[in-house]
Amino acid sequence: MHCGFEAGFKKVCVMLSWLRARLLLSLFILFVPVLAGGLTLEYILNEAETAGKTIDYSGRQRMLTTRIDALMTRLAIEQAEADRRAVVSEIKDVADELGHVHDALLNGGGKYDLMASENPKVKEIYFQAPHDLDRRIETYLATIREMIAEGAIDRADIQARLTGLWQERNHLVRALDALTGEFSQENQRLVQGMKRWEWLSLGALLALLLLVWRFSLRPLAERVETEQEALEGISRNVPDGVITIDRHGSIRTFNKAAEEIFGYSEIQVIGQNVKVLMPDPHRSLHDGYLRNRAAGKENKIIGKGSREITGQHSNGAPLPLDLAIGEMMLGGEKVYIGVVRDISARKQMIRDLAAGHEKLVSFVRHTPAAVAMFDRKMRYILHSDRWCRDFGLTDQNIIGQCHYDVLPDMPDEWKESHARGMKGATERCEEDHFIRQNGVDVWLRWEIHPWYESDGAIGGIIMYTEVITERKQAQERLHLLTRAIESASCGIIITDAVSADNGLQYVNPAFERITGYEAAEVLGMNCRFLQGDETDPDMVMVLEKAVKNEEPVKVRLQNYRKDGVPFWNEVSISPVRDSRGRLINFVGVINDVTEQINSVENLRRSEARFRHLYNSTPVMLHSVNEEGRLISVSDYWLRAMGFGREEVLGRRLISFMEQDSAKKAEEEILPRFYQEGYIDDIEYTFLKKDGSAMDVALSAVSDEDEEGNFRSLGVVLDITDKKRVENELLQVQKVEAIGQLTGGIAHDFNNLLAVIMGNLQLIQRRSNDNERVSPLIESALKATGRGADLTRQLLVFARKQQLTPVATDINELVEGLIALFRRTLGEHIEIDTTLCDNAAPILVDQTQLESALLNLAVNARDAMPNGGKLLLSTENTSLDERYAKQHPEVEIGEYILVSVTDNGPGIPKDVQAQIFDPFFTTKDVGKGTGLGLSMVYGFVRQSKGHVRVYSEVNEGTTFQIFLPVNRDATETKVVEEAPERLQGSGQTVLVVEDEPEVRQMHVMLLEDSGFEIIQAANGPEAIEILKSDAAIDILFSDVVMPGGLSGIQLAGEAVKLRPGLPILLASGYPRAAVLEEDAPFELVLKPCPDNLLVSKLLSLLGQSDVEERMEAD
């Protein structure tokens, strides 16, 4: 601050010895700028103080407007009139305070002391009325006073006008912001002026001293006296304190300004150590500083330039000082001269500015609004605490951070709004959606305004936000409630609670629909317009009394629609109170219960009908109490069970169940029923009074009687017949499945027998009638034949054996069997017959039927080893729809019934379900194959008949065979006998067989019979051979083959490739099981004797109509 002063002052000391004659002139010249500098400094300090107070008062104006905003918002939402009046009173006080501050700024007086500025710039900014800010404050205050005037504090009116007040407030705040910015800039200019004045004053002083040095030289003899006088004159007149000390630190000179700064007189300090002017911490260091200075070492205080230090006033108070120190020769002795300036005022002004800034920061931080200030790079400068809370940033220090780093998920449209704000635009949105960093959805209302630097450039933006989530949710809830009320099926009304007539204020559409009145017709009216001649006056009185007593009430009375039609109205009225418990409205709910009331009588009549139906319905119905005891049963229940009513009421329902059913009900079903309240179709076995069992399905549902006691209603269905049908169906399905299995076994077994038989026949041909070998071969062939018979029995059960049905008279067939039965069964079995008259004709394989009847007769004989009776009977009968429902495999129609009855020991129930299973037998090991009854079953089913057994232990058994009547029955073709043994003559046979052993057997047998053989393992391989040039006279193929191409498909492809080619197929199944009825191919059954196979081949080789039959197909 005092740079160059030290050197200049030395020159002044030399110059003073030569300027004695010019001293008076020099002092006068020196006094004029000092005086001017003092006056200028006083002016600057005055203007600085005025600017600081003006900034402070302007900030207070903004704070007061914010307070008014908060109170006006509270006034808009407060419902209680007394609370609104209290808020109005507080608003008046704050508005008056705002007016006082404004008067102080205008007039410089009043409640707030403010010295009027003489600065033209300051006057231009504020004090020269009329100013734009004056108009805005007056408009703002006038708007507020108008809004809170007596009789104008209606909440709805306040809410409607609040937006306009907000706009006025925003204009005012922007004007105050602009004012504060201008004052801050002017204040900075004054501070800079103070600094320039310091330099100018020092420069002027130096210039004067140089002028004196230049023009006032005096003889060297007068130098010391002149020097002393000049120094004293300078010390007395400069505005800064000037102190000189010797090398020991003793004070030599102490000017007037120093006296004013430190509070000591010159007499008090001359000769004392300069440490008296220092606070304690500096005193102990000062001697060391002097020694270092004298020794030419570096020091902290003494030296060139100036710095800020702390001195001490005579009263002990610390003094902030600017200090410049230099050296000079005084009286031939080196002394140190210090120039000090009291900077308390400047420090206080800086503190005031800092305090103002802190107030601004505190104001922003604690303002109830969410506000943040950003620079041009969107870095945070200021923000309120509410801002952090609203955006979920309470645990972060975000000052200096970029807004987009703090909230990285910022929507792009917000960033675009920020960019427009940086260009000077004002952006706002009344309703916007935002997701906080913690995932919480919020709704915001926001505004963006630019702020400006002192040079007018945009420094950044200020953002104001308000979380309106609760308001949004409240609006949505209100909208939802409104829609619910508008959509309600019951009528809803709201009436006034203040007026004596309680007029209607609202009715929903349901009210209009129920009463026929439109809302516009009835609003403001009392509900008495709904009453009529038949309205019960007592009920009306009950309603009026409850309304008078402000109590809820519910009544039912007759009202009248607009068209005069009466209806029964169930009315519920409830009082509505505000947050302070004061009655503000009544809400009513009305329901048209005309149908309900009319239905009461209908209900009484229906109860009588129900009781009649309950007792007469052909379903078992009952009711039980919580203990499971019967409290009512229907008449049908009693008839079905065989009990009287007095025998069952009071008994537990499970006491009528057999043991397993009772256990199931007690442990499983009842707990579930009590928990879920219902059961559906639970199967039990009930025991009738006569001890017989009845299968039932029980469904029940829990209920309560009129007194709230538990009861349940049960429905019991007799499913005895249904269970029997299901069991029979299961048996049929089981037998069907076993049939499929046994058919497959028979097919594979046929392939084995074919290999064995073929090889035996080859051996027989090549043995040349060896006497030792031939008997063995014959025995083996007979065994193979028996094996083939066994497979045929299996195929009969599987219904895959070829039958030869012919028209048959059942009576003739039975009579023809009697002699056979007598020889077969023996004399200890008495045989009798009961044959019907005019037995209807049937179409059946007589051989298989005879075998089936013989099988049943033999089984009867084996069941009666000690003798017994056997009865054969025939009967014309029919099976109707009812029987067919009970036996799903039966077709409705006429039947011949053939019964075989014995009086043996009978068949137990558990055995009856298995007697038709193949290989099942009750005979000892080695005495039966278990295929007899299964063959009977398979034959009857294949003949489209039905077989059943009835047996009682120790009573005997009856097997009944139902064969369908066929009145158009004619005899069918009989399978041709195999031709005599023949030899081939070199014809080529393509043999196709997937089983290697069977294929090899056929190849050897046919080669031995004079044929040439080409063989293939499957259909695709045979197709390739057929496509070649190989000479083939006939195709011999198995039917069932793997590879995706069966023998039948192969035959079809072969005819296409080689038209006219004879084809012979082989299968373990009969023709009807594998070929269509009109298929143009011949079939031999496996195992096939060699002579029959050769005969078939030769026969086909002689035919010429195969191609013609293919074309006809």
Walk me through this protein's architecture.
A five-stranded antiparallel sheet has the order 2-1-5-4-3. It has a five-stranded antiparallel sheet with strand order 7-6-10-9-8, with helices on both faces. Strands 12-11-15-14-13 form a five-stranded antiparallel sheet, with helices on both faces. The protein is elongated and about 175 Å long. It has 1113 residues and is α+β, with helices and mostly antiparallel strands. The chain has seven domains: 5-13 and 216-348, 2-Layer Sandwich (Beta-Lactamase), CATH 3.30.450; 22-208, Four Helix Bundle (Hemerythrin (Met), subunit A) (Up-down Bundle), CATH 1.20.120; 369-472, PAS domain (Beta-Lactamase, 2-Layer Sandwich), CATH 3.30.450; 488-573 and 583-598, PAS domain (Beta-Lactamase); 617-718, Beta-Lactamase (2-Layer Sandwich), CATH 3.30.450; 804-970, Histidine kinase-like ATPase, C-terminal domain (Heat Shock Protein 90, 2-Layer Sandwich); 988-1112, Rossmann fold (3-Layer(aba) Sandwich). It contains 35 helices and 32 strands. InterPro entries: CheY-like_superfamily, HATPase_C_sf, HATPase_dom, His_kinase_dom, HisK_dim/P_dom, HisK_dim/P_sf, PAC, PAS. Keywords: ATP-binding, Kinase, Membrane, Nucleotide-binding, Phosphoprotein, Transferase, Transmembrane, Transmembrane helix, Two-component regulatory system.
